[in-house]
Structures are given as structure tokens and as C-alpha cells.
Amino acid sequence: MHCPFCGHAETQVVETRESEEGDVIRRRRRCLHCEKRFTTYERIDIVMPAVVKKDGARVDFDPDKLRASMMLALRKRPVSVEQIDAALERIRDKLLASGARELPSTRLGELVMRELKRIDKVAYVRFASVYRSFEDVDEFRQLIRGI
Fold this sequence. Notes:
This protein is an alpha+beta fold. 44% of the residues lie in helices and 21% in strands.
């Protein structure tokens, strides 16, 4: 760690503290050249994969957009906010665990459908009917029979 005052490359950690949430570490440092003290912070840098749309466009993963689409499918359904948050967290965990830098939008849609099927069958059918763009009634019947 370079000293912000003199640019010297050697510093010493004098004190280390973890935040109450445990997601940030604060370090007090002392420059071994000019003796000045400064503070650094360590945070986890989580990078979600980019979403590759059907047309090939790449967009940043947007958890708000994901929540909005799930909320639309769950509109007027007896599902708690805690259940929705848990489903979103499971999707997020799967994306992080994959380690992928890019994710096809179709895969993200499948993850959403799996979670909706788990928490509310009607919301699952709503989402799937829009997501899969059924061409005829028979395809829709097959989906419902699968439940």
C-alpha cells in the first residue's frame, strides 16, 4: 500500500477493525518513511454476470428489474415479501456460484420460473405465458399439465 502523502511503498498496519455487519475491514496504517497515518477500507467486490439478450446485446444484471418482473407475476397473490426476497437471494446465489461472466437471458428466465413455481403456481403460469410466448393453446396446456 503506497502512502497517499509521500508515495512511499512501505506502510505498516497499526490497527484493524471489522464493521458490525462484517462486510468492511478498516485498517489504520502508518507510513514507514514520513510517519503519517491514514485509513484504508477493504470491501468485497462482487461482480454479477452480464445478461446476454436474445438479440446479442449485453446489459448489466439489474436486480431491480428482476424484482419488478417477479412482482408483476405475483401481483395480487398471497406471497410474502420475505418469500420474494428469499427467491431473489437464491437466484443471486446461483448466479454468483456459477462464476460466469455472462449469462444468457434465457437461463435467467429459467431461474425465475423455477423460483416462481416453487412459491406460487399461478405466478409461475403468468410469467411462463409471457416469457415463453406461447404460439397456441396446446403449448399452454402442456405447461399447466406439467404443474
